[in-house]
């Protein structure tokens, strides 16, 4: 391969629109990677990075797997080297031996990712690369360990301090709104008119986190309804014939949908920060807001009922709600963690289970997953820390008195049933 | 210490402007740090981070030293734990043991820095914290090893892919221009009028890199003069009575000043990328540009002459230039690296020594450091890679034929003198 | 009516959200208008203006008519005063008598409009007010003379020098794109996907003029297709399964739709300036463009055929095209002006009739209005001025040789038919 | 002159940087003007406009005078035509005769200005043209009547509804700040540091009006100090060693300097609107503000004392203040208007004379013009309208009780003195 300087390359690309030939992709890859990691990378860095990413982009899944295998095996930690470095550090823990150890303790693939990222626009491609990895490699495959390197880097790059909160409104660019439609994971947005109902009225808000290096890609977004009192049905929130409330008359903010947008950022948590920031900004704008709550799905309720051997088909509404309350406060996985992922998220944030509602999500999905039941998690600012600590350390679930009562009524029934 | 939720805190700060009491700063610090690193940090993170950074900010140097010592000793690697993790990894290199090892191989102070950085505006404070470290702790002090952690993090955070190039002009905000005046390290800017002469005429350009999380702080900037032919004197470039050239008539871009702005980012290299990007952008805007050169100081020339036992006081101009050519092509430190830091930078980028000029910097500093001599380093795009490789691997310095001739004439003289 | 200062008013509005009662609207109007035009208007101006415009906004059509009548009759020129002023001016044409005459020669309703316009956001409301006037008052009604005052003011306010050209793309705000969909007057945009096909591909462009005081309202927009060669069918331009052309490969820009957006700006011509500006900007961006053409409807072709007594139902395609060529080059209204409004616009701009195409607009409207025929008007930059002068002064229509030949073939037939 | 289309021209200018030859400027001007006003102007408008303005720009003062004479005499009203049109209108006041009259009642030079203004950037040049006119032509010269046409147009173009308020801060672009330094007309800004003291601290504000077509040119600006209580000395406001007040602790906003920036906009009043808008915005941002006052110069106080035959050289401070109070409340010009221009402005806005201070402006200019005395005009929102009406209709000056007492004490003395 003839390698010009990347300066020259950039100039040529602009004026001549040369594109890199994609043939012989997988074969030449190790050589390109070595170039980028070597001294040459100082000068030809951005161009070599582009070659690698251009080629990666046209690979088949099989070739990608080969690429990941190369990262896992040929750019791995050197155990012997590590052992030497660790012994030297223990013997004499000065700066030199510390630096030597740090260098040995980081696999070269991390430096590769950092050098690839020097190319403008590369951050997005690296996030997509990790999405490929998660899709192609099972978590227990030895190769999957390179995912730990991605996570490590992304946790640094996507640090909360680097994220930007932007309001999404009817005045936002269409190519962003289009992605909101596409990425909505809780209550599907069926059309541009449906989207408009969620972002244009003055009692509806939507906020998203963005990273400056991926300005066209929302990372996570939340949809908020400003209401009087805590809403108990999502269909009423999303109906198309309601009269909007004047924003300053609202006393409650309902977070009714939170969606992660990037598969390649799985496990890099933004939701916690997003909710805090939005609570903070809304409070500053609308001093009349005093209650912050969610209207949330219970995505595994039906599955749990099934696993427990319950048949809810002829339950009354009170029975259903009692079971839901019990599920939210008491259902556990085998590893001791809460059964419900949405509950884990909000209870982990310090929220409490405030209420349960039947017939609250009458969509097909809502009926299937949770028999139409939805939950309000309440963010009581004065109790967040205490709730969080109890949940994190003793796995205690905070709940309002009515939910506690419901839970107990279900336990009585359950005892009876099982007796 | 009574810790409220940071949500509450943020709200209160806005409305009541509570400020954190700074008393008892050093004492409470380990406790606050532990809070931030523990489960509590999930909920109270941003507020705890602010407490820590607010307190750090009012510390005396002695207290800061105590703080750094805490980071170095109490948040260090656990060697025993590391050894166990490494053994497990060697025995069974699966994902679990890999993750276990990665966790053990990173000192907790790195996670601390990441959590501190979640606070809006913290990045700037952490960069300043490293500047304190470099000022207070000698590089061979064992505590100085925590600088390696800062460098490691900053190399990720300030990756080229995250930097933004902005043109600095007379239409830039005053608070940015003020920093350009303050940070200029090569040819001091003496007044706003002097600044204006460097950024307003159409044949003068200035570009800087910024990081999105520090939008008011340039990281590095370069000043460029567009000329016909390669300039040989900086005073003529900066004179206040010249007639500007129409930009499209220029054939040459002279990089006559490059200044790093942030002490706390020492060793995180941006200059290479900045020059490449500016060459690229200027070429796209002004197709008539064909030559990219510097007009650079030789900051250690006088010192080198002194060390070599030369007395240049009665040298003729040709003798002086011959010595300068020799210095640029041949002077080495004991460790084998080039003697001159500016030469190291440009030769390392693949430039060549194009010419030397006497009486080229008649400022007091110019006369003292280099007897008024300046250098043109030429960026010949077609030869960058080859020059870089020869310099990096064989320490060969590329030079134009006239500079080679000058060098040889000095060597003859030198042999004679020493004979 | 108790009138507070508008300062107070603005403050109150923000904090208390007082709204103006709309009752008794028409009755109090003359009094409010007098306040605004009097000395009081100096202090209470913006508030009084808002009162007037708020009240106008809730009027019935009958009340609006009453309002217009008031403007026409009570804020009219004073003929006696004018005569005196004119005599004084003729007697002694100094500055004082000139000022006196200028004041007398402007009806007070013009000053009223200027004072109303001091309120932020009023420009849009005044444009809508004129739309009401055009809707409610026939042009030959004496009251319609106040439309001349609106036109006079709007021609100043919407001067080309104040307009801003913005590109409309898929990254434009949704509330602007929504208006593009609504205002498209030539080839209806049927959905957001249809819109996207017109603004997102790199060989499709859309540009609009905006006024800084109405930033959310396009005034006029043009849709452009970049092609190789001159397109002959609009359905092929708008099809949803085509492969976009790389923009730099295009040699031709086809202006296939121009729509005025504001009824209230009727007669204030922007189209001429818009086309010039877009030609200019496209040429600067894409030097490969050498041909600028339209693909235009012939909205009155069917009507003209009917009026002439032609029955085209069994015409061959050559016969149809010959008739179209004749219509474009030769059809005149009774007042001597060209029969076709689109032809008047483009020929008045100096374009020439380049070609006619059958089956070029197969939409229902296209078939009904023009039997599916469309025209290319060519903007040949070297001939614009000469074409314009000939058309403006001698009503000569410039046409390409093929169109001239077609025209003659139709004339022969016509003579034959009529013989 | 060979005239290409302006489209072509614009394209050429960009790519070839053709500039218009300036020779034979004055001679060809009437021909160019006629081209622009004729049918040709439809096509070649922007280019012809640029020719005219480029040529005007290089004219000598004598040539400019010739140009103005041409506008005054050759593009004037046609009195005979006007008389005919007026008779027709009186005879039959329909729309046609009304339009005919409006056309006749506007001199062609107004349409000329509107067509010149179609060129991007022309607005600024036309404002400068009027500045030339005011400089070169005495107000009683017959040619000066064309200034009435400029005023008429500018009053429309610079309507309050089109102006944009921008805060001027230390983050504003340097080329704007430079103009603030240059245009400050009340208390000279002596350096960039002096400027910084007025715009950077949180208790100092500066606001300016801009027009969208002249985005780099402030039209008028006001400097504001946020204080506790009403300030009595400008030197204390501008001192360089004071400690800033937290903005939210201020109860008073002092407007201590208002400067018009554009000579060519003389007589187009913005100050009234600027103060209202700033009061409004500050109140919204800082609810703690309850008092809005000025600290104003009395520029003609010394002159008035001289004219009255007073010798203040051995007056005590109480005597000086009594005279100042009398001057502010009672001094009149021969035409009955208030003697002091600053008083006319603020009293006309509805403010009242709140206090007078000795030693309040110790600059050379302050001592010379007003013996160091300054005034607070108070903007009491609840009384603005009443004050304005009394001043406008009955020339009554509103003053605080202390100022009234001072005035009476001076009158007693005066009577005594004159007795």
From TrEMBL, chains A, B, C, D:
<dbReference type="InterPro" id="IPR035372">
    <property type="entry name" value="MCD_N"/>
</dbReference>
<dbReference type="InterPro" id="IPR007956">
    <property type="entry name" value="Malonyl_CoA_deC_C"/>
</dbReference>
<keyword id="KW-0456">Lyase</keyword>
<dbReference type="GO" id="GO:0050080">
    <property type="term" value="F:malonyl-CoA decarboxylase activity"/>
</dbReference>
<feature type="domain" description="Malonyl-CoA decarboxylase C-terminal">
    <location>
        <begin position="317"/>
        <end position="380"/>
    </location>
</feature>
<dbReference type="Pfam" id="PF17408">
    <property type="entry name" value="MCD_N"/>
</dbReference>
<dbReference type="InterPro" id="IPR038351">
    <property type="entry name" value="MCD_N_sf"/>
</dbReference>
<dbReference type="GO" id="GO:0006633">
    <property type="term" value="P:fatty acid biosynthetic process"/>
</dbReference>
<feature type="domain" description="Malonyl-CoA decarboxylase N-terminal">
    <location>
        <begin position="78"/>
        <end position="158"/>
    </location>
</feature>
<feature type="domain" description="Malonyl-CoA decarboxylase C-terminal">
    <location>
        <begin position="161"/>
        <end position="308"/>
    </location>
</feature>
<protein>
    <submittedName>
        <fullName>Malonyl-CoA decarboxylase</fullName>
        <ecNumber>4.1.1.9</ecNumber>
    </submittedName>
</protein>
<dbReference type="InterPro" id="IPR042303">
    <property type="entry name" value="Malonyl_CoA_deC_C_sf"/>
</dbReference>
<dbReference type="Pfam" id="PF05292">
    <property type="entry name" value="MCD"/>
</dbReference>
<dbReference type="InterPro" id="IPR038917">
    <property type="entry name" value="Malonyl_CoA_deC"/>
</dbReference>
């Amino acid at each position: 391969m003839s390698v010009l300087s990347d300066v020259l390359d950039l100039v040529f690309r602009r004026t001549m629109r040369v594109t890199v030939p994609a043939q012989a992709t997988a074969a030449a890859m190790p050589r390109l990677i070595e170039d980028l990691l070597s001294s040459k990378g100082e000068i030809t860095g951005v161009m070599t990075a582009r070659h690698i990413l251009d080629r990666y982009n046209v690979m088949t899944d099989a070739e990608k797997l080969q690429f990941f295998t190369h990262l896992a095996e040929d750019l791995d930690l050197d155990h012997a080297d590590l052992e030497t470095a660790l012994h030297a550090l223990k013997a004499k823990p000065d700066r030199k031996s510390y630096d030597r150890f740090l260098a040995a303790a980081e696999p070269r693939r991390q430096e590769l990712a950092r050098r690839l990222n020097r190319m403008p626009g590369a951050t997005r491609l690296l996030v997509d690369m990790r999405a490929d990895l998660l899709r192609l490699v099972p978590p227990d495959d030895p190769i999957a360990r390179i995912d730990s390197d991605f996570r490590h880097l992304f946790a640094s790059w996507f640090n909360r301090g680097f994220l930007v909160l932007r309001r999404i409104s009817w005045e936002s660019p269409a190519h962003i709104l289009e992605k909101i439609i596409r990425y909505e994971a809780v209550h599907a947005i069926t059309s541009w008119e449906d989207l408009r109902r969620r972002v244009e009225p003055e009692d509806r808000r939507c906020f998203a986190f963005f990273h400056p290096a991926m300005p066209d890609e929302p990372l996570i977004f939340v949809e908020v309804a400003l209401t009087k009192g805590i809403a108990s049905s999502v269909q009423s929130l999303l109906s198309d014939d309601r009269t909007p409330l004047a924003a300053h008359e609202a006393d409650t903010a309902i977070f009714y949908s939170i969606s992660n947008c990037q598969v390649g950022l799985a496990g890099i948590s933004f939701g916690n920060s997003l909710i805090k920031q939005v609570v903070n900004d809304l409070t500053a704008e609308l001093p009349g807001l005093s209650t912050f709550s969610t209207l949330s799905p219970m995505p595994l309720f039906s599955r749990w009922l099934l696993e427990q051997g319950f048949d809810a088909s002829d339950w009354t509404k009170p029975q259903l709600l009692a079971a839901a309350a019990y599920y939210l406060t008491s259902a556990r996985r085998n590893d001791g963690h809460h059964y419900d992922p949405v509950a884990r998220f909000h209870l982990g944030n310090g929220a409490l289970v405030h209420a349960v509602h039947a017939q609250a999500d009458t969509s097909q999905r809502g009926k299937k997953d949770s028999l139409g039941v939805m939950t309000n998690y309440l963010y009581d600012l004065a109790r967040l820390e205490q709730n969080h600590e109890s949940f994190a350390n003793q796995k205690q679930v905070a709940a309002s008195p009515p939910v506690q009562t419901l839970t107990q009524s279900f336990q009585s029934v359950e005892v009876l049933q099982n007796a």
